[in-house]
Amino acid sequence: MQTKSEKEILRLRQWIADLQSGMYINCVYCGHRYGPDPGTPVAMADILTEHIFHGCPEHPATKLRAALVLAVELIRQWHCMGMAKECSKVAWELYRDNAPEMRPILEALDGN
Ligand SMILES: [Zn+2]
Q1: Lowest CB count within 10 Å: 30, 45, 58, 107, which one?
Q2: Structural domain boundaries of the chain?
Q3: How far, in Å, from the CA of 43 to the mean position of ligand 1?
Q4: Cis peptide bond prior to 36, omega within 30° of 0
Q5: What is the whole-number distance in angstroms between the Cα of residue 76 and the centre of ligand 1?
Q6: Nearest 5°: phi and psi at 26?
Q7: What is the Å distance from ligand 1's center to 105 Cα?
Q8: 14 Cβ contact list (under 8 Å, min separation 6)
Q9: Cα 48 to middle of ligand 1, angstroms
């Protein structure tokens, strides 16, 4: 059940999507241009968000994402130090998927 505020947020997001559907949208960091494409099944804002989190060469989030990927790899190496390879894979996946301290890192890497 959606609250009144949640319904209003969805209505306003749809309104923004409708307004942007006939426009070009530029990434302010690298200048990459999108749209207009009436056949696009997602809102232009969603396309821009996807660009920022997964493709913009200039956005600060790109550097942060790369740093988090490196940090996860370093955590994996420390976690598995001294373990047999077949054991370390299982131990790492258990730790990575269940440790509360890993959750915010993995959520940030998902970019959603
Ligand atoms: Zn960009």
Answers
A1: 107
A2: 4-58, 62-107
A3: 17
A4: yes
A5: 30
A6: -110, 140
A7: 22
A8: none
A9: 8
User: Which residue shows structure tokens 């131990």?
Assistant: 91
In whole angstroms, give the CA distance from residue 53 to residue 96: 22
How many Å apart are CA 96 and CA 79, to the nearest integer?
A: 10
The CA-based diameter of the chain, rounded to the nearest angstrom, is 57
pLDDT higher than 80, residue 84:
yes
Cα 58 to averaged position of ligand 1 atoms, centre (Å): 6
What is the whole-number distance in angstroms between the Cα of residue 59 and the centre of ligand 1?
Answer: 6
With bands split at pLDDT 50, 70 and 90, how would you rate the model's confidence at 5? very high
Tokens 């959750």 correspond to what residue? 103
